[in-house]
Amino acid sequence: MAAHESKNFAEKHGPDAKPDSLIREEILKRTKNNELPCAVAFEIAKSMGVLPKEVGKTADLMNFRLVKCQMGLFGHTPETKAVKPHPDASSELKAAIQNALVNERLPCKSAWEIASRLDIGKMTVSGACEAMNLKIKPCQLGAF
Known about the structure:
Blueprint: H1 21-30, E1 35-37, H2 38-48, H3 52-61, E2 65-67, H4 91-100, E3 105-106, H5 108-118, H6 122-131, E4 135-136
Parallel strand pairs: 1-2, 3-4
Helix pairs in contact: 1-2, 2-3, 4-5, 5-6
């Protein structure tokens, strides 16, 4: 996919926002087709010692599309969303999700922490949220 001229991702950051030049260079080294996979964004954040949201903001300001969400929520093909409801989630997982809700939503960071703590996949957590009709928000990269 080429540049995403139909959507201006930079708009949400205001007219004076500028991409971080070091993060920008790292994004350019690791991507193609103006798309930044979630896992690559996290690799960049870790290697540079910055927060994932800084990588996401820089990608937005470059008008790069964030793709392949590790929670399965956006940027997958042929369908945008890869996660499917997981109605038979364990009571332990459901309780962990309920205990981590903020304003009736599960922050992405909390979903990752739950997955790590319970030694399960991130998409198992997001699938349980789908079955429970709960939104995962905010995204650590700032996509939503």
